[in-house]
Each structure stands twice: as structure tokens, then as C-alpha cells.
Sequence to fold (568 residues):
Amino acid sequence: MRELFDRLFTRPEGEVAGWRDGIAVAHGTWLARVRAWAGLGHRSGGEHVALYHDDSLEFAAALIGAWLARKTVWLVADTLPANCAALSGQVDAFWGQFPPQIAPNGPGPGDDWRGEWSTPAPDFPALVVYTSGSTGAPTPIGKYLSQLSAEVAALERQFGAALGTADVIATVSHQHIYGLLFRILWPLAEGRAIHAARHEFPETLAPALGTRPCILLGSPAHLKRLPTHLDWRGAAHMLRAVFSSGGMLEQGASTHVAGLLGQAPIEVYGSSESGGVAWRQRKAAEGGEAWMPLAEVRWRLNDAGALEVASPFAGTDGWLALADRAEDAGAGRFLLCGRADRIVKIEEKRISLDALESALVATGLAREARVLGVPDAARQTLAAFVLPSVEGRALLDGAGKAALNARLRAALASVAEAVALPRRWRYLDEWPVNGQGKTPQAQLLALLDDQRAERPRLPAARLLETEQARVLLELVVPADLLYFDGHFSVAPVLPGVVQVDWAIHYGRERLALAGAFKGINALKFQQMIRPGHPVLLELLHDQAKGSLNFRYFSDAGAHASGRILLES
Fold:
């Protein structure tokens, strides 16, 4: 990592370090923030600090400042009470945007460290990251500076030639290993501009990608949902690469992204423990599911067919066993064949969770499915979490949950004995995801303990006016609406995609609209819609144009509007 520290110190102060709210941040301005955080570190006791900050430029300054003060930095995906409680016994201080009751620290007016700009030793314990929790409880993983340095150098050797000085734009958080390496450390080492904000919504992502040459860092959960109705032509012109990590990207999603953005995603396979392991880019003309290991990575299969790797990123002198099964694909490549730890015992019966999930999707009633073991006091049971297909949703809405449960349980009879079938079922519209674009196992299991799946998805609606092609409704959004979850922690805000969905729902219900959703034009969001505040929804059906015009408004003014296009 010596190259990183040397380059940061010698880089011209007038160069652009990044962008915040569309305004360039000079490297000298950013260095001043590094010195401020380093000053905090040098006047503070202890060796371990927890760091959380939404702004990537400020986060990067705090990280480098902490390392200059020889602090080991602990990262968590969020600042929920459980994570803060777990950290409190591990760290000496909390830095950044933790809740006020944690008493987080930040640089003071006099913090401006001017000491020697020296690189920590290779064996400096630079970082502790947590596994995502998608397959169990999050586990802390320590990283030496040498591991991070080796991986950053390997990424540049593998992909850097095609990237140039492109900006780094992301839909993923930097609070985990993928985002940290690709969004913070790699750009810092190579002088690529970092965008301070993470793009959570495609409406802001599309124009951002079309401004300057750039790189997009995404996850399968984000990339597969890029809408076709937005204008991505600027992005297709400016993008130098699209990276995806954090899970497997389906072939259809890869094709979808390539069609919209002009770049087939470069998928990176790895883990918090191993660092990066391999990559692939499934171009339409070439196809192929095999993974090519990074040049520094050696791999082999153990007797159980599970993958083992050895590399300077993995932090071990020997072989690290991973939880994925694999096959040799020839030419130094391998195929991934599912997780080795997805076999559970129910009443002494060995059950493949992968097989159950595949059988559920094969019914045509589920788009996706997750089956998890639920530890009970007496014995382990299974729970199924399902995203219904159109047919499955129709059955659920028409005949009820019991009917869909019965159909799916019957389909599993050929895969598992009755004693091993899921006993609990939850039907969701989409997977809950964290900043990594992953679905933590604990987040799914928590749905079994509350009534989230049963909470309202529609507002209280009152018909005010109706005509042949027009309807006016008064809507009052309930405070316990399902879609307020995660939008946002400070105050509940109704997501824009829900507003569009409601317009389509009431258009079909009140104006008897038919035809599948085709796209949307002139979409505007002016003011937030909050719970308990009545708003009016006006719908106008233009049959000749095959469109549904909608607008939300109230005494406060306009809230949202747009024109929905429907297939004839």
C-alpha cells in the first residue's frame, strides 16, 4: 500500500479527487480532511475505531486519517442498535455518522495533523469487516494492509487498462469489502474521481452515468432492476465498465444490462474472507459460465468437491476452504455449482435447500424462492420465502395464502418427504436488501417474528369523482404501510415506485384498464408523501394513445405526476 500513500501525498492538489452534489472536490481540499481525521486519531486513545459515513469522500478521508494515526478500522453495513452493541465491546471509539446516543467522534476545529506522512507496515491490522450475513450471522474478518494492497494492485493489473481515468459511480455501499476496494481504495490508488453519493434510484443514476467517462459498481439486486423506460443512451456512451459482485448475476440480467448500457457486466466472485477470487464477463457472442481466477489466485477442489483458494488477499499461507462447490471447466477455469453448506438435516433426513428452491421456481408460481432452516427449541424446521410469479400472485389474491401454500407443498412432495417440507411461508413482492444489494438471512428470518408480510400495501381510498375516462380519489397512507420500511430512518417517505404502482392499480380497478405495463414518460416527483396526510390522485385514460396520466396533489401543491404507457 506504499504506492497508495505516496501517490496521495504527491498528487497535485488541484486535481479532482471526486464529486459532491455535482461540484468538483479538489485533491488539496480532500487532503485537508485527511489531516483533520488524522489529527483526531493522534489525540485519541485506543487502537480500534468503528467508522460509518454515507459520504464516500469523507469516509475515504477518515479511513486514511485513521491509518495514518495507526488505528484499526471496523466497518459495519449499518448503524442499527444490534450492530452498535456488538461493536461497543470491540472498539475504543465510534467515528462518523453513528446515532447520537453512541456519542460518535469527528474532527474538531483544531485538528490539522502535520506530522510525517508514513506508510504503515505491511502487517499492520488495517481493517475488520463483517461478512454480509446472507448465509448466517455476520462474522468479523480481519485484514492486514498487505492483503488490501495486493488486491488493489491485482485489480488494476487485470482491469485498469480499459478504465483510464474514469469516474467511479456506485449503487453499492463502501461499508463492506467489495465497495471498500472498488469504490474507495482502488480509485484512490489510481487517481480516479470518487462520487460522494451512492445512487439508490435509477432516476438519478441514468443522468449521472451520462456526464463523464465512468465506471459503474453495482450488485445483482440493483442491476437486474434497471428500468427500460429511462434514457440510458448517455450512459452507454460514457461507461467504460460495469462491475457486479455480492451474488450471482443471472444470465438474463447480464443480457439486460448489456442491452441498456452497452457493457456486459464484469462479475467478480469472492468473499470477505478470501478477497477477490475470479471474474467472468458473459458477452452474448461468447457466453460461458466459467470463472477465470485472478492472476494471483490459485484454486483446487477438495475431496468433497468444494472450492479451496490460496492468494495474497486471503490472509493465510495455506489453502482457504470456501463454502461453494465447483467443477473444473478446463483452461484454468472453474464452474460454480452451489453452496456446500446448503444441506440440512430434518428428522435425520438430508435435505438440499437448493433443490427445494429449484422445485418451487419450477412450479411457475414463484419467480424466486429462498428456503432457510429455522432453529426451534425442540427441533429445526424450514421456512420458505417466495416472490410469487404473476400466476402465483393471482392465486394468492384470489384463493388466499392457504391455497398457494398447498400448491407449493404438493410440488415439493417429489423432492422431500412430508416431515421435511417447509412449515412456515412468507410471500414478498421483492427481497429486502442492504447497502451491499444482499439479503441478509437474519432479515428474512425476522419476517417470521413480526407481521410485516401481512401489513397493508394500499392506502385508504375514497372515490370523489368519476367519469368515463377520469377518476379522482382521496388517499390516506397508513403509518404502518409495508413500503415505509427502509424509506427512511429519519421519517417515513412513500417510494416513487409505489406511487406509480398505485396509479396502475386504481387505473385497472376504476377505469377497467387492460394491457401490460410498457413504460413511463414525464415522470416527476416534487414533494414527499407522508403517512396520515390526505392526497388526491387524479387518473386520466387516453385510449387513443394507450396511456394513463396520473398526478398526486394536495393543499401543499403537486407531489408527483407522469404518463404510464400500456400495451394495447
